[in-house]
Amino acid sequence: QVRGQAAAAKPEDSPNALARRWFEDAKFGLFVHWGVYSLLGKGEWVMNNDKIPIAEYRKLPPQFNPVKFDADEWVKLAKSAGMRYITVTTKHHDGFCMYDSKLTDYDVVDATPYGKDPIKALAAACRKHRIKLFFYYSLLDWHHPDYYPWGMTGHDTGREKKGDWAKYVAYYQGQVRELCTNYGEIGGVWFDGWWDLPKAAWDLEGTYRIIHELQPGALVGNNHHVAPFPGEDFQMFEQDLPGENSAGFNKADAAAALPLETCLTMNDSWGYNSKDDHFKSPEQVVHALVGAAGRGANLLLNVGPRPDGAIGPEFAERLLTVGRWLEGSGKTIYGSRRGPIPPKPWGVSTVRGALGGEAPEVFLHILKPDVNEVTLPEVLATSVAFPLGKSTPLKTTAAEGGVKLTIPADARAPYDTILSVTAPMPDQR
Length: 429
Ligand code: H79
Prior knowledge:
With 429 residues, the protein is an alpha/beta fold. Helices cover 24% and strands 19% of the residues.
């Protein structure tokens, strides 16, 4: 290829393909659920769960004045945690828009005393700190008068049992257009709530076309819990690692060859819940991140900021601890792919370098503290293994089906004992 000459447009060089690769390298993102529901401190489903009529729920926006919201602080926290992107709720199931929409007055600029667009501030801060921004957008809407009556949820909010479905589709697609137009380059759009209505209702193809046309480098994901649809760029799993189904609705396998993402929340709530103090420890978060990486997936880790806009110390302290762990161990995570050894009771493997032409480096992540030996498969039998950052190779002995590595006690590390395994370079003389 001649320098200065336009490269042939190869599919793998398209903005979308490059973005997918970026996404797979990024590995760790911050998920933020924040809305007028945060005022009640009972999670983002409170309107449905407490059967709050629309007329009653509409009393929340006039109370929403997040004087402590500081987009720079959010972004700095995400960066200190080692996160490479942020996915923020622009509209959740309650239908309230956390950005300035021209298609409704039911938004943060028109309906709250705050009167500013926090998504605009967040987009600016993300640009400044070079981190990507994704928009969560709920397809389902418990507030819009034309939202089809009825979906599976939201029956007790006083919505009238009538509506013009085509108008709702135009509304939501118009909002997607706004989100793809008014905030500069975005990382992608993260849909939720698809499962509320029959598939045909949504015109997803049309929606995805709008995004890919307006934002050629943006990635589309849809939290529909089933196998990916055409036009989607990554496949997500809610509350479970790919291939697991503790939540009961993650029945899709990960065979689609799309980039993968698992979303989890730091406690047991997405939106702010003042009573939920069931926080994951930094070790549990590291295990989730490593477990996702070993299955080829990103971890999108959620926090629920308070109604005043601050992300509480119960989230921040844990995130910073994970960030410090990543400073030492991130090279086994960022830019990695799932390794040659599938998930085992002792942990997972990741691999780096195979794409760039360097010798591949395989990392074994031993997540169980009492494991003192692992067996490498035949394909790695001629490898040399070191505890990460150490220079004394581990003892190996021949074993059935491969070679056994002995892990001495002084090689153990907190959270994750990482072993670096490299094949000896072939003699090139
Ligand atoms: O935004 C957060 C949650 O509010 C939202 N997604 C995360 C990221 C979410 N909404 N619902 N759920 C998560 C759980 C979904 C449960 C489901 Fe079902 C089971 C959907 C379909 C089967 C509940 C029962 C809804 C319909 C039937």
